[in-house]
């Protein structure tokens, strides 16, 4: 914030170091969130672009927040607590999203294994590891739905609200309000949501395997081992195509739960 003083009939404008530190604290929380979120941390976006985006968002936030939140103290110990608190808050926001997206990737792994695509893997440009084709499909599908539902608008609004509710330097005083135990319990949601998404394909493929077992029992002359691989893939792809609408609804409901969770628990 610019401060004006008159010294010896000369107007002097200077920037308060406390307000500079407040802006840097806002920038730190925003940049941690942007650099960890899977939608922005991929190699497709240059690091310089992500840094400029974080700087722009922090500047937009700082203008109205400068009059609503107390400035950061220059005490070294308090500065260290501010840095640690802002990093943890940014990671908490990002990890909450990663828990939900991890459910979709886990569902893709389960479906790929059941369909026989467990070894058909592609490189994930975000993490650099090998993932299954179905998991990659879910990543792209969930990302498109996230932006279609204006999820990026929600996160900007939620992040701004978090600065009002938890100003820089007040993280450790707000730990009880954050309900960190509920955030940790989100990790169990990965498997619950993954099996909910993958359940239709698992059931259909299980029934098809029972049918092939009956064919072997009553018509042993049929070489079911050769037929089963192609049949499993065809049935899996067919019902996966039929389930896209249900998957879209499940992902949409999951994002709505995520948005409600962030507003109720985090801010």
From TrEMBL:
<dbReference type="GO" id="GO:0009425">
    <property type="term" value="C:bacterial-type flagellum basal body"/>
</dbReference>
<keyword id="KW-1003">Cell membrane</keyword>
<keyword id="KW-1133">Transmembrane helix</keyword>
<keyword id="KW-0966">Cell projection</keyword>
<feature type="transmembrane region" description="Helical">
    <location>
        <begin position="79"/>
        <end position="104"/>
    </location>
</feature>
<dbReference type="Pfam" id="PF01311">
    <property type="entry name" value="Bac_export_1"/>
</dbReference>
<feature type="transmembrane region" description="Helical">
    <location>
        <begin position="183"/>
        <end position="210"/>
    </location>
</feature>
<protein>
    <recommendedName>
        <fullName>Flagellar biosynthetic protein FliR</fullName>
    </recommendedName>
</protein>
<feature type="transmembrane region" description="Helical">
    <location>
        <begin position="222"/>
        <end position="244"/>
    </location>
</feature>
<dbReference type="GO" id="GO:0005886">
    <property type="term" value="C:plasma membrane"/>
</dbReference>
<keyword id="KW-0975">Bacterial flagellum</keyword>
<keyword id="KW-0282">Flagellum</keyword>
<dbReference type="InterPro" id="IPR006303">
    <property type="entry name" value="FliR"/>
</dbReference>
<keyword id="KW-0472">Membrane</keyword>
<feature type="transmembrane region" description="Helical">
    <location>
        <begin position="140"/>
        <end position="163"/>
    </location>
</feature>
<dbReference type="InterPro" id="IPR002010">
    <property type="entry name" value="T3SS_IM_R"/>
</dbReference>
<keyword id="KW-0812">Transmembrane</keyword>
<feature type="transmembrane region" description="Helical">
    <location>
        <begin position="12"/>
        <end position="37"/>
    </location>
</feature>
<dbReference type="GO" id="GO:0006605">
    <property type="term" value="P:protein targeting"/>
</dbReference>
<comment type="function">
    <text>Role in flagellar biosynthesis.</text>
</comment>
<dbReference type="GO" id="GO:0044780">
    <property type="term" value="P:bacterial-type flagellum assembly"/>
</dbReference>
<feature type="transmembrane region" description="Helical">
    <location>
        <begin position="49"/>
        <end position="67"/>
    </location>
</feature>
<keyword id="KW-0969">Cilium</keyword>
<comment type="similarity">
    <text>Belongs to the FliR/MopE/SpaR family.</text>
</comment>
